[in-house]
Amino acid sequence: MPTDTHAHTKASWPQRLHHPITALIAIALAMVVAGMALNIKFLNPVKSALADFSTTDLFYQQALQTGDRDSSQLITIVDMTELRDRGEIASLLDQIEQLEPRVIGVDAVFQGWKEDTLADMALAAVCYAYDNIILNCYAFDQDPESDNYQTLVRPYFFEGQTDPYPFLTDSTVTRGRECCSLMPREMYGGGIKRSVTTTWQVRGELIPSFPWMVASRYLGEEALEPSLAKRININYRPTYFNVLLPDEVADHPELIRDHIILFGAMHENEDMHQSPLGKIAGLEVLAYATQTLIFHNDAKELDGWKLWLLSFFIIWLSSWVYTSYRKLLLKVRPELLQLILSMSYFKMLNLFIWMGFWLWIFMLVFNLNHIMINPTLAFGCMALIPYAGEFYALFFERKKKQQ
């Protein structure tokens, strides 16, 4: 007697779309849970922590723990923590210049004239004598409604502050060599500094950032295009920067010639900052930022529809893996082993292994192409796939039984 096998094997459209439908349900559940969590007042600390979280922190910390650290052949740091006398600073800068560095970035704002006028004049003279010295300024009094700063503190020998000393009145010498070392930072988590801008606005005037100015001078005047407050994610791949004390400069000309010299304090508590690598000196933050601008290896974020599409694919695949695992469990013998493998502990263990696999993939992509993939949506939905499967069964399999 002939049988209609087609009638038994043909699946309905919900069955054919089981995994994408489950993925969509998981995303909807995640949105509901996230919306509730972020609007409950006592969960504000969680909201703050999530706002300051970045996937790259995991990558950098992993590289740091495994000892995977590069060594910079480009940047040398000269530590001036113990130097306070401007005459000694002038002498050290002149000594460095004799060893022919490509550029010197001075991360210090020499504010106001001191009692030792001769030392002040000596420092000013050195800064005027060499056009590869980049001088720092400091901006404050930010307009809360914009990124415009109202006050800029310049070194004492800059234009408008040199009238008592006629030999310093040629302000065109320093014009184009001043910059600002402000760094954008997040509002929470201690102000983690993850990005660098090309310019800052001070009273409507564009002031180049310190890293941009140093990198541009190293590469050539027209090498980097300035833009209005363009943010670039700093590549914090762990790097060893050579650090010289003042009395070590003469002994290491190979670390000075044709190098970028960052001149500043490495051990001042007021200039220590939170970074994805932990608490480091502000001069190191500037070194990482400068290096990122020179090599154009900033961490680019995968966002918009591309991130949503990739997350949907991962959730879809996770639904298939979860369903396959459940079907495989039904074939496991003896039943005691099946029961053990069905426990919540092993389900969570499998989930962590699956997440770890994708984190490894994301880290590989980041190391090869400097593309940062935020896994928050995908990972959040992975944990909700069992519940999404229950909703799928409630809405679609019940209807099938009724039919």
Give the SSE map.
Elements lengths: L4 H5 L3 H4 L1 H21 L5 H8 L3 H11 L4 E10 L6 H13 L4 E4 L10 H13 L3 E10 L5 E6 L24 E3 L14 E3 L1 E4 L2 E4 L1 H10 L11 E3 L5 E6 L15 E5 L7 E4 L2 E4 H14 L4 E2 L2 H26 L5 H7 L2 H26 L1 E2 L3 H7 L2 H18 L1
Helix pairs in contact: 3-10, 3-13, 3-14, 6-7, 8-9, 10-13
Short description:
This protein has 14 helices and 15 strands. With 403 residues, it is α/β, with parallel strands linked by helices. Strands 1, 2, 3, 4, 5, 7, 8, 10 and 11 form a 9-stranded mixed beta sheet that branches. It has a two-stranded antiparallel ribbon with strand order 6-9. It has a two-stranded antiparallel ribbon with strand order 12-13.
Q: What does it look like?
A:
This protein has 14 helices and 15 strands. α3 (18-38) crosses α10, α3 packs across α14 (385-402) and α10 (304-329) packs parallel to α13 (376-382). Helix content is 45%, strand content 17%. The chain has helices at 5-9, 13-16, 18-38, 44-51, 55-65, 86-98, 117-129, 210-219, 282-295, 304-329, 335-341, 344-369, 376-382, 385-402, and strands at 70-79, 103-106, 133-142, 148-153, 178-180, 195-197, 199-202, 205-208, 231-233, 239-244, 260-264, 272-275, 278-281, 300-301, 371-372. Mean pLDDT is 80; it is low at 1-8 and 161-175. The strands form four sheets. Strands 1, 2, 3, 4, 5, 7, 8, 10 and 11 form a nine-stranded mixed sheet that branches. The protein has a two-stranded antiparallel ribbon with strand order 6-9. The protein has a two-stranded antiparallel sheet with strand order 12-13. It starts with a helix and ends with a helix. The chain is of the alpha/beta class and 403 residues long. α7 (117-129) links the parallel β2 and β3 (133-142).
